[in-house]
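Allow me, if you will, to draw on your knowledge of protein folds for a short while. I have a record of one protein: its chain in single-letter code and its fold written as discrete structure tokens. I remain grateful for any guidance, and I place the record below:
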Amino acid sequence: MSEKMQKKNLSQPDETRTFDKGKLELATLGGVTFGRATLQPGFKWSTSVKPIAKTKSCEAPHLQYQVSGRLHVVMDDGTEAEFGPGDVALLPPGHDAWVVGNEPVVVIDISGMVNYAKEK
């Protein structure tokens, strides 16, 4: 039997998680979980999500498309980059990230949001 066509909308997600200065909306199709994260100015992983994740740095791998805003990422090894609208990023586990400036960051992630900001 073949799989059937499916449609979901991130504005009516399967699950929503909120955390300090952020929100994550999740929809799963065909075994892939899409996450739309909206991060407000002042968001920093190490202060907003670390208390939930209880890890030294973000251990979620991200493969994401940045819709809006600017996000600065620093890997545990010290390498860093800033991402903006239209950028596609692969972020391995072991990083911190924060919103740069006054515009919220919106990213669509297709690999790392299943357990992001989820109570252990």
Observations:
- The two ends are 36 Å apart (CA to CA).
- Residues 5 and 58 are 34 Å apart (CA to CA).
- The first helix runs from residue 45 to 48.
